[in-house]
Amino acid sequence: MPAVRFGVTLAFQPPESLRALAIRAEALGFDSIHSRRGASPPLRTSPQEEVARAKPALGALRSDRGGTATQDGTPDA
Amino acid sequence: MRDTRFGVTLAFQAPESLRALAIRAEALGFDSIWSGDHIAFHNPTLESLTTLSHLAAITRRVRIGTGVYLLALRHPTIAAKSVATLDVLSGGRFVFGVGVGGEFPKEFEAAGVPHHERGRRVDEAIAVCRLLWAKSPASFEGQFVRFTDVALEPKPVQPGGPPIWIGGRSDHALRRAARLGDGWVSYVVTPERYRASLERIHAFAAEAGRDLRAGRRFEPAHLFFAVMDDDWDRARVQAARYLTRQYNQPFDELVKKYCLLGPPAVCLETLARFVEAGVRTFIIGFVAGADRAPEQLERFAAEVLPHFSTSPSPA
Q1: Helix (H, G, I), strand (E, B) or coil at A22
Q2: Of B28, B62, B84, B191, which residue is the least packed, with the fewest Cβ within 10 Å?
Q3: Å from B123 to nearest chain A CA?
Q4: pTM of the entire predicted model
Q5: Which of A15, A19, A61 sits opposite B88 (nearest CB)?
């Protein structure tokens, strides 16, 4: 296989677990350590597919324009 | 001397030196480690919360703090999130020193923050931080920030969030400390002015209907630039050279009045006058240059710290 790198993204957990995982990942040969983005986007199978509106739980962050959200969260015009 | 704590503030230097100093400061019995804060300044600086997060990972006991964080330069919600994260990662060891700043207007211009709004922005940002640290979901309607039903999780380890110590010497700063602070951090003052300022803080608090002796302990702190040297004049010259470069203004005369200089016996006398004036936490900034920082730290720990009794940091 061509040169491929593997990183690991670490979710929220107690600081001691976070530190232990990071140290272990480096020792095991992982190439990188990432912090996961806070909010998962609504998933879709193609760029043209409409996705569900942001849920009310997102509060002030939701669009009041009734539009759809693209995968990166910006409202479509 | 009674109930006095010592922290050390670490200037910009190579990461390995920074780490070594932090680890050594903890081992030597310093109570806290601090970082100054600027976005842009006369000389290079590291971002404070990022630096302290790095140092929190390699220490276990010492408190870590910003001395002081220019809160108006950041969006309050982002600052609240970063501080909460740092409090979690450090196991509740963070002290949020907050200042208005303003002596370097370019950093306000770069951050898109009108210089003249910085005081009001800090006041509002403190309210935003405390709300988001304590309540989920939270709503806020202010002059600069508005949101509804936002939950900032996880909350800081320290209930209600880290203590907020207000920095500054002006009457505005003293009023802010009196109304909103869990502590006050002065710098470049005499013991006489320190005592008078602390009295003003208590008076301003009383005006605002607040008793600083009740509830969460109010911590009077002082940031002290220091050079320990058996030769007082050599210490003076080193401090003046360092601070003149750091602040881009002449410090030749100022260091005589405002710095902790000279042999241990002289430093102890100076510190005693500030303790008498009300200081309970000293934040020492060694200004003999990065190459002398390890020696300064060791000497201070060996010849000054043993003369003070300490108690656990206030929550």
Answers
A1: helix
A2: B28
A3: 22
A4: 0.89
A5: A15
